Amino acid sequence: MSEPRADYDNPWKDVLEQYFEAFMALFFPAAHADIDWARGYEFLDTELRQVVREAVVGPRRVDKLVRVWRQGGAEAWVLVYVEVQSQAEASFARRMYVYHYRLFDRYERLVASLAVLGDEQPGWRPDHFGSELWGCQAQLRFPSVKLLDYRARWALLEASPNPFATVVMAHLKSQETRGDAVARQQWKLALTRQRYARGYGRADVLRLFQFIDWVMQLPAGLEESFWRELRQFEEETQMPYITSVERLGMQKGLEQGRQEGLRAGLRAGIEVGLELKFGPEAAPLARDQPARGSRAAAGHPGPAPNREHAGGAAPALSGRGCRSGW
Q1: DSSP H stretches of helix in the chain
Q2: Does the pTM exceed 0.85?
């Protein structure tokens, strides 16, 4: 019985857009407290791609650039970089440094670069990059969160009212149950049931279940068994949140996400080819013709902040504040 390979890239992108405020509250509470959430926030996908061509490709990485406003009224930009690779990557800190200074150089905005490490290497904890020559120094220190650390704080995640705690639990259990489809089915059902027990509204249950369903894929037989048990649970609790129509929509969305990843890779390959043949001025031509059916890439306002679920009891596990110097 083959187990489908977990896809972390697309679900992390979606859940960051849906729960950005909750994400900041859980992982970076000091920054969260300094942001005026009443003014909203805006995802700057176009601006990010203009300075970081790799942001549209890169398997198992998630980049998000967000415009926010601080409590004093000043504008600030937040670069969120989620690394979900299963192995440590030597160039990670350097890439954070490059992204950071390119954004500052092009747009002259204060940028906070934040990293979330979703890999399975306990000792890999990059939080800075720099160089020095003859007294001349350039370096960046960035806060980073290691998702593995939350395994030891599972009870806090379960008790947290922050919806992003569910994201962390699903991510960790997806990794832990790799190769054990029966255990994954049990955890998938347990995490889904918990969303009902916490009293979340229908919209939150559906959004969080979409993430759980995406990263905790099951073989066909166990998937059908999961849906039977979930349907029975919904009947017993009289909370039929996930209908058969929505289930089919989620499955189609899952397949569409895979296809968009392939299209993004194809566009990146065309872009590199144009640059090599005709020079850097030709590379943007590959971006001028978006693949049919792909999601809009232009910056767009984020969803209205969910004040009820913004806070969270789980502790932040970040490094020192984001600092850069040239």
Answers
A1: 9-18, 20-27, 29-34, 45-51, 92-107, 154-159, 164-176, 181-197, 202-215, 220-237, 244-278
A2: no
